[in-house]
Amino acid sequence: MYVIMVYDVTEDKVSKVLKSARKYLNWIQNSVLEGEITEAKLFQLKKEISDIIEKDKDSVIFYVLPTKKNMVKDVMGILKKEQDFFI
Amino acid sequence: MYVIMVYDVTEDKVSKVLKSARKYLNWIQNSVLEGEITEAKLFQLKKEISDIIEKDKDSVIFYVLPTKKNMVKDVMGILKKEQDFFI
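ok -> structure tokens follow
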């Protein structure tokens, strides 16, 4: 499956969330990561994130697609580093 | 079509980008908007964004899906306002 993860967490948790997410996904842009991931790994990632964030303050969203095949990714401006660019 | 838009722009442009994007999409989280949009409106939105951003400094990504039908949106933590929540 293919996942786009976006996070909006308090500053003290940003580096922890990022460190955890980077083990599984590619960093795309400030607060955005994406990548191919197995269901088991996604479960693991969610568990890690759940241990880091405060559920009444932070927000992390996973957009989960069965495949990236039908998605078009349109980048305006610069391509940040570490991108898994696929258009 | 369904679009997830993420932006990473210099601070002086954040409110302009947000104001423009909000005319077409729903604000979801810091730097993230999403929503159903027609091809014509998306073209218009991209034109507006293109007029605001500096292509060597800023980055705006549009993930374009033919439909949101196959996408699962998994929210951890709080749901920010203005969400078009569909799970």
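The beta strands of chain B are 2-8, 26-29, 32-36, 59-65, 72-77.
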